[in-house]
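FIELD: query
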Amino acid sequence: FSNTYRMIEQDDFDIHTRLHTIVRGEDEAAMVESVGLALVKLPDVLNRLKPDIMIVHGDRFDALALATSAALMNIRILHIEGGEVSGTIDDSIRHAITKLAHYHVCCTRSAEQHLIAMCEDHDRILLAGCPSYDKLLSAKNKDYMSVIRMWLGEDVKTRDYIVALQHPVTTDIKHSLKMFELTLDALISFNKRTLILFPNVDAGSKEMVRVMRKKGIEHHPNFRAVKHVPFDQFIQLVAHAGCMIGNSSCGVREVGAFGTPVINLGTRQTGRETGENVLHVRDADTQDKILHALQLQFGKQYPCSKIYGDGNAVPRILKFLKSINLKEPLQKKFCFPPVKDNISQDIDHILETQSALAVDLGGTNLRVAIVSMKGEIVKKYTQLNPKTYEDRLELILKMCVEAASEAVNVNCRILGVGISTGGRVNPREGIVLHSTKLIQEWSSVDLRTPISDALHLPVWVDNDGNCAALAERKFGHGKGIENFVTLITGTGIGGGIIHQHELIHGSSFCAAELGHIVVSLDGPECLCGSQGCIEAYASGIALQREAKKLHDEDLLLVEGMSMKKEEVVSAAHLIQAAKLGNSKADSILRTAGTALGLGVVNILHTMNPSLVILSGVLASHYVNAVKDVINQQALSSVKTVDVVVSNLADPALLGAASLVLDYTTRRIY
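FIELD: result
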């Protein structure tokens, strides 16, 4: 409401010139008159200031007047937050400013691609992230209770109030008024303390204020109606709210940094990239739909999203500004199609690789790696996996923080954290439900919340077998294959199933426990308590068990083999003995390969995949045996299946990275 200058003064900036340009009226004509008034007044100001560069932010109609004046007066323009997509006249204004601007600072990879598609010069685009995130990510843990009480009352608790912020949609004022009225009805029915901000000065705002007064919002005991909240205090209010509702860009952009649930109403933000925390209500005929959305969202806590920034935008922008050569020609260059194949920047101040932090929780080791979008392991850290829950979680956080810090030095932008772990996992909640016996104190463990809170990054968790299948789908033999199965042959036997390009989890997250397919009713006992499972025959533990039996009977070692006295008998010794002609060792391996092959035949008859990928340290020893069993036992219609050995060096880490790199967070309601 024309008072933003007060915030600028509070930040100790000297204001050279003040222009009154807002024409009252809050309708379409008033917006046009405001732009015209600014265009009349700005030339004199710019002639006096003679700026080298004009920084223009966002997509408001007053910013269009600034950009137009600067362009016509041959002043270089740096536009911040261009390339984004929303659902109002702001889209047209934003893209118009883009065409006038000489340099561009954008917040997301999609926005960068939009700018390139709009024929802007690649070398003049900086993907920096949203500058407000620099402040957001450092502000959440300040004294927030005093702020909440000041605006909402002494008796309000965190996560037990709503922040509402709804503006008119200038291209459809009538519909936006209807949505606002339904929103207020739903909030009244929901009966929670609500801080509601007045709409902005766009066309239609007067009518929205009338709706508020008609419903008595300013005097309702559950509502606090205000025109403005200082930015620092607004951060604290939305960070600790039970929900934010409305159609402000703040809801789909900044609030994601805190994981606060958001209900985005109508079409004003259509096209914006959103985090997992945003639930969209595109249209509503009654208050019931909005009320149901409130019931679904209120009080939840989502992973923190960094779609719009990682807290380092300002240093990047400063570096970009310093790199601008004021002697180069002012005339804009447009890069008309075809665009470059590689849309990454070549200028050293913005060359960053989109990457994931991948965590692999094994029975012995805990590993964390920085993995690029192309599947390159940029840096890897390995520690022994602690035996207790507290020590393990502490080490995971320590290693992730160290890796995230190092990512800046190796020019990688971390998009999120993916975790691969043994056991049964609920990937929707990020919880390990039941662990394998190899990892102690690892049942009913919420991994997502503490790691997301510590790193301000979204976190995904899944079973190690599922992660191996995802790794194959993105980086390995499964790339482009609609239906395939991955089998991990290691300490245990696990796997993952890709059906119609999607990973299958099952109704209780127990799908693809392929190691526990029973191939013999009276076979050896498995760690799961059953008998005759594939894992009881073909896992590393099973082979080690059989090797120990042979060794105890002095039947393991043959000519060419030796063992130190303190050396532990392992599956590797059994394999070595078989290669050197030990018939008993060879028989055990053939039995194990047959058991695995029978399990694969069962999978073929159940899922009918076109590809079976054997992964893990034992895969190469089993592949021929599996093919033989398929030829002997499988139905003719599935005998043509391809059986291959994985060529991925580290499927667990690559699969964990795939959780992050392939994830789509937008939800529609």
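FIELD: remark
Residues 339-351, 664-669 have pLDDT under 50 and may be disordered.
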